[in-house]
Automatic annotation (TrEMBL):
PANTHER family: FOLATE-BIOPTERIN TRANSPORTER 1, CHLOROPLASTIC (PTHR31585), FOLATE-BIOPTERIN TRANSPORTER 4-RELATED (PTHR31585:SF7). Residues 213-228 have a biased composition (Polar residues). InterPro entries: BT1, MFS_trans_sf. The keyword Magnesium does not apply. Belongs to the major facilitator superfamily. Folate-biopterin transporter (TC 2.A.71) family. This is Folate-biopterin transporter 4.
Amino acid sequence: MKDMMKLSPSTSQFLVSLAYFPWSIKPIYGILSDCIPIKQRKRVPYLIISSCLSLLPWLILGLSQTLRTSANMLTSLLIVQNLGSAMADVVIDAMVAEAVRSAGPEFAGDLQSLSWSSMAVGGIFGSLLGGYALSNLPIHVIYVVFSALPLFQLVSCMFVEDSPKRFQSAIDEHNNQSSVTAFSEEGSGEALGKEGARRRKGTRKNNKRRPLSKQTEANEKSNGSFNPSPSLSLKSAFFSLCTAFKQPAILRPMAWFFFSNVTIPNISTVMFYYQTEELHLEASFLGTARVIGWFSLILGTYTYNRYFKHKKLRDILVFAHVGLAIISLLDIALVLRLHIPHGIGDKYMVLWGSALADAINQFKFLTRMFPFGRMMPFLILSGQLCPPGIEGTLFALFMSINNLGSTLGSFLGAALASALNISTAQFDNLALGLGAQLIGTLLPIGFLFLIPNEVTGLTS
């Protein structure tokens, strides 16, 4: 966008924000995978679809020079690519939630640690690959190389277990719950007791299924399986989400995290322009510098679990936002060149500023993961608040609200850069933009009353 299309910083910021919009509608993918199975499988088919959506845009961009030189087509293909990535992210979250449900809450921390560690290792290797590619490969080859990564993801779907029996057992459990509800509504305690005894007896006999109606049996014979009505499943999922969402213990923290992202104008793309055009730092260096950021995420996770998880959540969030404000001060010092008299190089300012920002953001990320009740892992809580079968949807809703706030913050950053007339050759007002970002970072501290005062950062 900068070198080939010659787009302004504000335009690039806007298009990048638009490209990441699919991450703001994650509940849609969650409801689809939870409620509309494909051939009795809820996860693997959607992993395959998401992998293809991630694969094709990179391959098309690598093979078509016309498309990769058009800003509109490039943005459209990046939206598709992010759609695939976001969908895969939701499916994996749901699978982790299912694993927590079957393994027990005591293993939740281990599963989440494994997920984050894997993500960090992948991020490290991805950053190294990106830095090397930018220095040694032409752009069309880089796109083709990128397409090999979702291809590997697609192949790995062959090794993911997604048994139809698990889906059938979820249907049976749903039917059993519906049957109990029907009896209770009739007000017949005796009938309810007999039905419960009959179900327990049937469970002891090799988990036999309840007798189905003649119409259901006919449908089962014709279709080879029993499929619940998608409209009823979607209605049930939507009702469960609304019921959980309206609880003050969930709504108020969600509102705060959304507000804390919206108020911060994101001008990261503008800063990339400044670092490459004004400071003449190589793009490959900025890509490789992300390695330090990933190590900082690991360090931030360790520090949080070691020293902060027993602190009050409000104190943790104050620490995070004050820390992010300090990072904004470092960026202002970089733009105003205040570090030069002290003999500090630009690379060190950029490198360590980015590393500290990633580490502090990890604190806020961890508090987003555990913002409710007694700070139990959100994947476990979503399993408690939602009925079996839609484990990933509530978690996806919460993360989507955060992502939507971040996206709106990025659009705000693009508007701010445009209003300040920041261009490729004009960065005089960049310090003002960073000052506005500093103020926006501190604003959410005044709304921490939305977070219950007694809540701590305890993760289990």
